[in-house]
Amino acid sequence: MSSTTPDETMPCPCGLGTPYAACCGPIHEGKPAPTAAQLMRSRYSAFALGQSDYLLSSWHASTRPAELELDEDTRWLRLIIDASDQGGPFDTVGTVTFTAIGRTPAGRFEQRERSNFVRDGGNWFYVDGIEPA
Ligand SMILES: [Zn+2]
């Protein structure tokens, strides 16, 4: 498994324009994401950086796959958070609707998903997602 060593000063892949070290970097290193939307961003960044261990550890145990193989041919270009509902510091559930834009050798694609998150023991976790209507 290959994973990119993140450059701490690069703009965070999640697209907020903040350096990685001040955005998703600390969350990848174990700092709890304060909101479901930030956990969503950190998971997108982990996809972009090939950090499958983080993707598994931020996946709720009830739905977590045994292993996760990332497609090496996919390059993630951009994340757009379309909507988020609940998922705040005082909530225990939240949903985030997003569009992730990527590219494979076959061309550019968009993936839309409405993801469900739960807060468990002070940390947000990804549960599952559906394609929004
Ligand atoms: Zn980020």
Description:
It contains three helices and four strands. By secondary structure, the chain is α+β, with helices and mostly antiparallel strands. The protein has a single domain (20-130), classed as Nuclear Transport Factor 2, Chain: A. A four-stranded antiparallel beta sheet has the order 1-2-3-4, covered by helices on one side. Strand 1 (75-86) and strand 2 (93-104) form a beta hairpin. The radius of gyration is 14 Å and the shape is globular. The protein starts with 23 loop residues before the first helix and ends with a strand. The structure holds zinc ion. Residues 12, 14, 16, 23-24, 41, 45 line the site of zinc ion.
Which ions and ligands are bound to the chains?
zinc ion
Strand content: 25-35%
The count of domains is 1
General form: globular
Any idea of the CATH topology?
Nuclear Transport Factor 2, Chain: A
Keywords for this structure?
single chain, about 130 residues, alpha+beta, Nuclear Transport Factor 2, Chain: A, four-stranded antiparallel beta sheet, 3 helices, 4 strands, globular, binds zinc ion
